[in-house]
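Prompt: Have a read of the protein record below and flag anything odd:
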Amino acid sequence: MRDGYKRLLLGVVAAHLTLVMLGAVHVSLDRFGPLGRALAGYSALSGADSAYGFFAPECNDQLEANFELIDRSGSRTTTSLVTGANREAELFINNITLAFESDDPELRRRLAASLAGKILARHPEAVEVALQVDRIESVSMEDFRSGSRPTRTPVYEARFKREAR
């Protein structure tokens, strides 16, 4: 029984690594019927479908929102929306942050105010929050090997104060 368990475990690991490889080369499993859809669902839930393309030429730049909190004494701390709760939550936050690419200044202002409100709710000691959204410009693997590193360029900045009650 012990050998049977080891073989089963080895089979599960090999199947998972196969799905990781298929995800890395962008194979869509959905087209292979119900079993393919089930494997695609597992791949999405486990992260095996990630293309692992941070250095890929087609990799898009990313936006990242960071917040500087200021309390009554003037002390400053930084935080972000990312909680590390799970991959889906981080994807959701990344999608929200991408809205700062909009050309509509009113949309960007309203989104910034909403996010600042969320951060202030998480940190009741803060009286002010400064938001900075940066574009993280990726580099190719070749450029990375020769010493280049991703760069940050500010895209949007705003400050918000807690209303006095």
